[in-house]
Amino acid sequence: MHRLSPYPFNIAIFRSVMLHNNNLRIVLIFFLAMAITRNTTAQSTLTDTEKQLVSFIESEVENAIKLLERVVNINSGSMNFGGVLAVSQIFDKELSSLGFETRWEGGETFGRAGHLFATRGTRGPHFLMIGHLDTVFEVDSPFQKFERLDDGTASGPGIIDMKGGDVVIVETLRALHQAGLLDEMTVTVALVGDEESTGRPLDVARASFVEAARAADIALAFEPGDGDPKTAVVARRGFSGWELRVTGERAHSSTVFSKKTGYGSIFEAARILTRFQEDLAGEELLTFNPGVILGGTAIEYDAEHDRGTAFGKTNVISETTLVAGDLRAISPEQRDRVKKQMEAILSDNLPKTQATITFRDSYPPMGMTEGNTNLLGLFSQVSQDVGYGPVTAVDPNEAGAADISFAARHVDMALDGLGMMGEGTHTTKEWADLSTLPMQTIRTAVLMHRLARSWGEK
């Protein structure tokens, strides 16, 4: 798998920030990040405080696994509202015990269970720690329980996507609290209840989350990334849905291609898709995929459940065709330009056909910024200092959409892929490498402590 350098595009992005962003705090955080990197590069041993963090986290591993087992054994499929709430209540209790003020936001206005927010502190850097409570496994799934496979692995629904990541959040905060370090920082924890099946309207479902991001300085998210503890996510592509509708003249198939009846909707849809592929495929970090196609005399499409039916005959020219797909881009500029190119391709219709395309923007891109890449550098240095080796960036082609994308544009630094690792997400073979639970907790706790300590030295 291709890995990106942890420091791509730094000079170009910094120049862009200097030229186009007057926010002095962005510039200050850049130089702060550089200073921290220089200091930690020279540090060959951990401080006594950092050793205390490591020792405490290692002593709590079995308790952390017990917490993980408790939440995995509660079904919290996105549409099981009671289960999502039950998982939130466990984390609510854990966070409250650490001095956090917690708030449950019911999801009645966006058709989902709701979100849990917890906040503590008023000093230092403001961290937003991001997780989600729901899984893809609903109550009718055969995959329902935590199972310890051996000393080092376990399986269960959502064990890495992302209840393991939620436990990393709690255990990181527990370690910082035990060492008396939480008072050095401000922390907001956002555990959303609809990441796997987002509520609608989307702006309502993410309103409080975005508000929390605007108040923060640094966003840390605990998805499992690409499953490799030697990588983390500095950029994610955004997600937009698109729907192509094509109409033609319904007539006997013997007249197809004639001036009177033309080519029919299926031929026109095929022309458009071929042009999409010929003109747009291959652009870096851009993909577009037609996932559903229906064509014939009459069609019915249920967009909510991604299914439909089509009726037609081989001797009848197709009257209606629908294609539904997705578009993934690394920046709003790339996304908007490609939309215009797709719309232009539609205008060159085959005879007697018409076509329209509509787009529905969902998750925004998480751009590869100067702040993000420097935060990765700090995280990599921490990882080396605690004995886990360097960390490089996940190829954005390997990183799907996630909630950090809603936060990244509002903070100075953002990093994802900090959760527990394993394989098989969204399948009944999902399993976790339990050794990555303390690993990710140690790395995150030391990172947050170093950032807070250096913040106070500004």
Keyword list:
458 residues, alpha+beta, six-stranded mixed sheet, four-stranded antiparallel sheet, 13 helices, 21% strand
What this model shows, in words?
With 458 residues, the chain is an alpha+beta fold. 38% of the residues lie in helices and 21% in strands. The chain has 13 helices and 18 strands. It has helices at 10-20, 24-41, 48-59, 61-72, 81-96, 159-178, 202-205, 207-214, 264-280, 332-346, 370-385, 404-408, 436-455; strands at residues 101-106, 114-120, 126-132, 147-148, 153-155, 186-192, 218-221, 231-232, 238-247, 287-296, 298-302, 307-311, 320-329, 354-361, 392-393, 413-415, 422-423, 431-433. Strand 17 and strand 18 form a beta hairpin. It is elongated and about 85 Å long. Residues 1-32 and 34-43 have low confidence and may be disordered.
Please state the structural category.
alpha+beta
Supply the number of helical segments: 13
Q: Overall pLDDT, averaged?
A: 90
**Uncertain residue ranges:** 1-32, 34-43
Shape: elongated
In short:
The protein has 458 residues and is of the alpha+beta class. It has helices at 10-20, 24-41, 48-59, 61-72, 81-96, 159-178, 202-205, 207-214, 264-280, 332-346, 370-385, 404-408, 436-455, and strands at residues 101-106, 114-120, 126-132, 147-148, 153-155, 186-192, 218-221, 231-232, 238-247, 287-296, 298-302, 307-311, 320-329, 354-361, 392-393, 413-415, 422-423, 431-433.
Indicate the topology.
Elements: H1 10-20, H2 24-41, H3 48-59, H4 61-72, H5 81-96, E1 101-106, E2 114-120, E3 126-132, E4 147-148, E5 153-155, H6 159-178, E6 186-192, H7 202-205, H8 207-214, E7 218-221, E8 231-232, E9 238-247, H9 264-280, E10 287-296, E11 298-302, E12 307-311, E13 320-329, H10 332-346, E14 354-361, H11 370-385, E15 392-393, H12 404-408, E16 413-415, E17 422-423, E18 431-433, H13 436-455
Parallel strand pairs: 3-6, 3-7, 7-16, 8-15
Antiparallel strand pairs: 1-2, 2-6, 4-5, 5-18, 9-13, 9-14, 10-13, 11-12, 17-18
Helix pairs in contact: 2-11, 3-6, 3-13, 4-6, 6-13, 9-10, 11-13
